[in-house]
Design goal:
Shape: elongated
Number of helices: 11
Amino acid sequence: MNNHIHWYPGHIAKAERALKEKLNLVDVILEVLDARIPKSSSYGNTKALFKDKPRIILLNKCDLSDEHENLKWKKRIEEETGATCLLTTNGSHKDMNIIINKILDVSKPVIEKMVAKGLLPRPIRVMVAGMPNVGKSSTINRLIKKSKTKTGARAGVTRQQQWVRVHEKIELLDTPGIIPMAQPDQETALKLACVNSIGENAYDNEHVARELLRLLSGRYEKNVREYYNLENEEVTIENIALKRNWLIKDGMPDVVRCSQFILSNFRDGKIGKITLDEYGEC
């Protein structure tokens, strides 16, 4: 079993170049975080990455995370970044009008600069950015559903990048910006793996599943015991497999199958509404 989560510098460099190219095209950034790991899914040095561009932070998948922790993290994020933080979910369109109105609000200084230069105001250009699998594409799709009108490729934009009019005053870049994922901290890498923000080739499922059970011990151990019907047994992959009678040769528990099962259960929210990043850790 490989206990180290690997990073690939070449992929990180490529992602950083692509993101910087897109940043040059936009006025406002929607940064998407995973509400289950608000700290671990954020980019450490956002000031250097995003410069002074207006930013709205979406604490996404909040329907899968601990409701009490959501409010604590929302407040902290706003205090530490100065940006507005909104709680959003992948499965609902109810929060789209709130996002649109907030974009219009934070972009007022951009419009004022245009007018001051004697330019006619144009639609505000917005990009959705964040780590892999935090819900960037779902956010784009939900915003685009409000309007299917494409305005076509702009000068300096590749054919794969088009602007979509989602409001009379807002255009959205229809391809997300992937934030580089250089994470030397294995605990952070582990949490990213738990929520499937890292490619499966970078880690071992059994190792991540064991560490996930460790992270869930304490605050969420009751959830784990109830979901897997564990009473006095130790909370282990082996015992969960035995409860399901998942056995391999010589009656040994099928750890491989059960590890993937546990990770899928957590990612789908079946174990409960859980936040892995503890508020007091920061």
